[in-house]
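hey so i finally got around to running the thing on that chain from the lab meeting. sorry it took forever, my laptop kept dying and i had to restart like 3 times. anyway pasting the input first so we r on the same page abt which one it is
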Amino acid sequence: ALPILDQDGATCNDIDECSYSSFLCQHQCVNEPGRFSCVCPQGYQLLGTRLCQDINECETGTHQCTDAQNCVNYHGGYRCMEKNRCQDPYVQVSDNRCLCPATNLVCRDQPSSIVYRYMSITANRSVPSDIFQIQATSIYPGAFNTFQIR
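ok and heres what got predicted. didnt touch it at all, straight out
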């Protein structure tokens, strides 16, 4: 937007576009002489001129994770998680799966496997809200599955 001419016919006055609407920018509107611009919070980059997009530090390689850690991206940042999260008597069988060997007697009273999954959930969701759905099937009669979210 352009500045408007004052009543004296010689002075230009800036129009603060940001004060007219809170929907000009996805995050924050900054008034500037003769125009406005949008800025994003840390961990995000401007997409076009008004929208904010998460920076995936895990894909761009700008994270600080070690070789023994997996980079897990979330909205606005990332976390470094240990690759091997298995605790005795479990043994790691893949990047995110731990297995309790059937040959170990302690495993009779434990879940046969543990799978680690990470997901980013945005804040300020309306309640109630469906976030995800879990279904479990078993080939063993009478078997049951337990799910924990931490």
